[in-house]
Design goal:
GO terms for molecular function: DNA binding. Pfam families: TetR_C_13_2, TetR_N. The N and C termini lie far apart (41 Å). The chain is elongated. By secondary structure, it is mainly α. 76% of the residues lie in helices and 0% in strands.
């Protein structure tokens, strides 16, 4: 991937995490990177194209993270804690989960982006379900759904109230000591 294209994706991801999908324009993005607006249009003709590339990139990145957690950590509780720690970094950077932010602005995204967001959250829930099954949870799918809902909601509250402990406290119920 070209350096300019990578920069566009990186900065756009940060802008979505802090301002939302509708909170910035191509001009804002170009100014933040120090390039011309036309350079963004060269790589992403429409904002919908940029959004799709961002969701695809994050989805692929998280699939790699899930695989690495499965390989590198011995127990499901350790994997769940590592995932929670990953999401905790959003709060420290006063950010929000990009896919969560885009899902909240669903009326503004294309059908292709919506489909990719659905796929992302299904894969996240499937990985979580696998962890809860390994922990002997009978209602593993429901528990995974509650984990995602709690994580997204507590990220929002932690950011709103400026209290990172809200997130950690909310997920505590899902991660055994």
């Amino acid at each position: 991937m070209g350096d300019t294209k990578s920069k566009i994706l990186d900065v756009a991801e940060q802008l979505i995490q802090t301002k939302g999908f509708n909170g910035f324009s191509y001009l804002d993005l170009a100014d933040a990177i120090g390039i011309k607006n036309s350079s963004i249009h060269y790589h992403f003709k429409a904002k919908a194209d940029l959004a799709l590339a961002l969701v695809e990139r994050l989805h692929e990145r998280h699939l790699v993270v899930f695989e690495a957690l499965d390989q590198d950590l011995d127990s499901p509780p350790q994997r769940l804690q590592a995932l929670a720690d990953h999401f905790q970094t959003y709060i420290q950077g006063e950010k929000f989960c990009m896919c969560g932010m885009m899902a909240a602005e669903l009326q503004s995204v294309s059908p292709a982006v919506r489909s990719r967001l659905i796929a992302y959250f299904k894969d996240l829930r499937a990985w979580l379900t696998k962890q809860f099954v390994a922990m002997g949870e009978e209602d593993a799918e429901e528990r995974a759904l509650r984990f995602v809902s709690t994580a997204e909601g507590s990220l929002l509250l932690a950011r709103l109230e400026g209290d990172p402990q809200i997130f950690a406290q909310a997920l505590k119920a899902f991660i055994p000591d």
